[in-house]
Write a structure and sequence with these properties.
- The protein is of the alpha+beta class.
- It has one domain: Hypothetical Protein Pfu-838710-001, CATH 2.40.320.
- It is about 20% helix and about 45% strand.
- The protein is built from five helices and eleven strands.
- The chain has an eight-stranded antiparallel beta barrel, surrounded by four helices.
- The two termini are about 35 Å apart.
Length: about 220
């Protein structure tokens, strides 16, 4: 299960300050050696079978690897996201029938069956990861992300912080970290994941007058440009 808080980081100066943190209260922060460049595509069936089940299927390329992930959302409250998550490395093809045997494949095939997959949302991310430990316990990981989401010919930029609970951490650890962060920095909870923001772009296009559908828009957050 994935349990994490998401925050928008509107001010690039705060983003830079977060990157330089070495402690946070009693927590020790250790950054990874280098940021990751990720390219992620979210897929669904033509009849949106994943969306109907509050689930998602993504394929992410990072450091020469391709990882398929299936998630099922339990909802989000004030930036806290809780999801079931299953993932597997993949090689050829994106349809689950081409994946190696795994729980992720099993879960995906229940939803997809033999239906085709359609690329819905594309996300390009530069991710900075920071390990967080408390009294020697690896309790969480901070991920500082910046990049853009593209869907239906529209693009929106983002800059955000994810605080993800590790197996050795507790909800009290997560609450303590987030409380320390919001006391020190101006952060706004992000109730939507990147896929949901991409789907919102598609929905906005579909609900616009037909005369405007042929016009591709670029919508960039000025702070992320």
């Amino acid at each position: 299960m994935e349990i994490e808080f998401k925050f928008r980081v509107a001010d690039h100066r705060i983003f830079t300050q977060l990157l330089s943190l070495s402690t946070l209260g009693s927590a020790i922060l250790i950054p990874h050696a280098a940021p990751e460049q990720q390219h992620t595509i979210y897929f669904d069936t033509p009849d949106e079978a994943f969306r109907a089940r509050r689930a998602s299927l993504r394929v992410r390329a990072v450091a020469g690897r391709r990882i398929a992930t299936v998630k099922r959302s339990h909802g989000a409250v004030d930036g806290l996201h809780v999801r079931d998550e299953w993932e597997t490395p993949i090689h050829a093809g994106v349809h689950p029938r081409h994946w190696p045997p795994s729980e992720a494949r099993k879960r995906a095939m229940v939803i997809v069956g033999q239906k085709p997959l359609v690329a819905r949302v594309s996300v390009s991310t530069r991710r900075h990861c920071i390990d967080v430990s408390v009294e020697g316990r690896p309790v969480a990981e901070l991920c500082l992300d910046e990049g853009h989401i593209e869907a239906g010919g529209r693009i929106v930029g983002f800059r955000e912080l994810e605080v993800e609970l590790r197996d050795a951490g507790t909800l009290a650890d997560l609450d303590g970290l987030c409380a320390a962060l919001t006391r020190r920095f101006s952060l706004e909870p992000e109730p939507r994941g990147k896929r949901a923001r991409g789907i919102a772009l598609l929905d906005a296009i579909l609900t616009r007058p037909r005369t405007q559908l042929d016009v591709a828009e670029i919508v960039l957050d000025v702070g992320c440009a």
